[in-house]
Design brief:
Distance between the termini of chain A: 46 Å
Number of helices of chain B: 22
Radius of gyration of chain B: 25 Å
Structural class of chain B: alpha/beta
Strand order of the largest sheet of chain A: 1-2
Helix content of chain A: over 70%
Radius of gyration of chain A: 25 Å
Number of domains of chain A: 2
Oligomer: heterodimer
Number of domains of chain B: 2
Distance between the termini of chain B: 80 Å
Largest sheet of chain A: 2 strands, antiparallel
CATH superfamily of the largest domain in chain A: MetI-like
Helix content of chain B: 40-55%
Order of helices and strands of chain A: HEEHHHHHHHHHHH
Structural class of chain A: mainly alpha
CATH topology of the largest domain in chain A: MetI-like fold
Strand order of the largest sheet of chain B: 2-1-3-14-6
Number of strands of chain B: 15
Shape of chain B: globular
Number of strands of chain A: 2
CATH class of the largest domain in chain B: Alpha Beta
Number of helices of chain A: 12
Amino acid sequence: MPMTNILSSFRGKKAGRAFILPAVIILLLLTIFPFLFSLFLSFGKVSFLGGLQIHFAGLKNWLRLFNDERFYNALSNTVLIAVIAVAIEYVLGLGLVLLLNRGVKGSTFFRVLFFLPMMLTPIAVGYMWRMMFNPTRGPINHVLPLLGLPAVGWLTEPKIVLYSIILTDIWQWTPFMILILFAGLQSIPPALLEAAKVDGASGWRLFKEIIFPLLIPASIAAILLRTIEVLKIVDKIYILTGGGPGIYSESMTLFGYNLGLRAFDLAYGATIAFSLFATILVVSIIFLLMTRRSQEISLE
Amino acid sequence: MFKKTRRSRLILVLCVSAVLLSALGISPALAQKRFEGVEITVFTQTPPFIAKPVQMFRADWERETGGKVRLITAPWGELYPKMFSSFALGSQNYDIIIFPAAYLADFASNEFLAPLDTFIAADTRIDWLDILPVYREKISTYAGTIYAVTMDGDSHMFYYRRDAIENPEHQAKFKAEYGYDLAPPKTWAEVRDVAEFFNGWDWDGDGRIEYGVVEGMRKGAQGFWTFFSRSAAYTSIPGQAQGLFFDPETMKPLINDPGHVQALEDWIEIMEFGVPGMINMDNGEVRSVYAAGEAALAIDWGDVGVISDTDPGSTVKGKVGYSILPGTTRAWDYVEESWVDFPEVNHAPFLAFGGWIAGIDAKSDNVEAAYDFLSFLGSPENSYICVTTPETGFNPFRKSHFEKLAGWYGYGFVNPEDYLGAIQATIAHSNVQPDIRIPGAFRYFEALDAQLAMALAGAKTAKQALDDAAKEWDTITEDLGIEEQLKNYRASLGLPIE
């Protein structure tokens, strides 16, 4: 290779690195450093007296976490909300996408209508549903007795509260599933579906053999993104119940917020945050492994 | 010659001006605006509540002094972290903070705030002695030093529907059922009976079902203050230093003693006679529910009184009665570890939250200007306007606030004497209990709040929940240092520090 080419390629690499460097520095400063600092905090004890002081505390915070009944309660609440909400959102989303795709009259209007809840902030959704669920002045409990049904303590009954929160999440985020799955559906070549129809495939076989398998990549993305989001749920719960009654609706993030920022126990708050990070990481890896395995089986 | 004449005229004009200014009582030096070019930064809660007074008065102060006021606000949940980190890291983000009194111990014990005794002693505008003793001597003071200017007077009080209680039919029915006269409840036992009596029927004839009581119980909100309002009389014996939070000799938590357990059992029971969903209500909701005429009784700060009479949407204007918090006929003596019976009702009104106070960063470059602004904002005249204006979030705390009724009538109150009388009776009570004021106050509150919520939800008994809370309080105290916390706690109570 001529010398000039080597030099220009070297210059090209150097120049490339120089261009990337600011982005790398910003990433390190804004993402990696706080991440590592929080991890470090989870092994420390924080004191602000005489300036910020962090003393190494070993596994103290982690041992406290594993012996804390509120941690296990928050973890099980969060996982339960994530599993039920995402499953229902996916099934509902898929059903509505198939309906919209069949060219139902006014489907454009419904498409816009379905997306509206997703555009609201979770805080606004929380307040709206808090009014809807109000035991004495809310419209839901106003209608139930007219139908001969008893009024329900939607946000005050320990056995019901999580399902009320799940309901609000489904209401708000099913449109997200519709959005992703609709895009997936649009990417299926129409010729493929036409060919199957010509070959006499029924609607169910069309769905089972062609549409659903081809929607799997979009489904994986939608389910994974929603699962990660729901595992971090905090805003709606904060407004709807504050984690109550008792701690029956306290999520991991709310638990971390209460201990880390309300009680200002930063080290323990960081420990809770990292346990949530670990949970999300484990759930994501398991989910990706499972879906990869199922894709391999379907290819075989 | 011409130049000389002009200079002479100029000198003459200056002399005449000086004489005129002196005659008006203004020296030439003072005629220059005293804080020209100085900018002070005030940090407090997001408007309207608490920030509104700063917005109302900053232009006047700027005009008078030449200084500038920059207002920075944050939501409630971010106040403490932002204030504490600004002080602790020495970043001097704010000259003035307007903050909940519960934070004072954290800030004062760490010497984050400038002592204000000298400023106050030399200040003719602030009229310090007009501020009620409990606020100036306890709430704004730490270990004998004044660190804050009182901006707001806060205490829990009790509300009842006069039209319901004074109704002769109700009185006859109540006497037949309970064997004594229906009257504004004086004890927590009577609160239970009256709440039960008025629960679940249309006692005001509006075609809708009403309920007995409404209290803020929501987790993560103000529930723990309601609990202490209920437990204070069960645990505070007149003359004893403290029975509500810790033993001031050992720092042992008192929150699981029989007095507190009794109060929590009462609180759990009262849910049966409350507005449905009360367990999830914060005090904001308590106010709207009560103003909508849904309950006969309520516990709240002064706000239920304000909203009931002044909110255009209120259905209970002029129908609300006000009183000091109910009491008990016995209280737990933590020293003797036994119940003490009282021939008369033992009241122990609770200064829940303690009000908003304003302090100055000890490292501020503008302490003098900052104090001047606080003195201006907290002066008798301006503070009176604040406490009688909607959405300031400030309640009366000066003697003069209670004496001038015109502003209260103008505010919309039907019976301001009764309202102010109940607040005065609370604040001036000999057995009044201040809120907890030690470092880590909100860590203790958070731990208790979760346990109270579990007891209210039926996940634990009152005793189990409070035992668990006491264990957590012990852990927090150990974490923060028992000796240090004991010292701080004694200082907060005005007890000698050994």
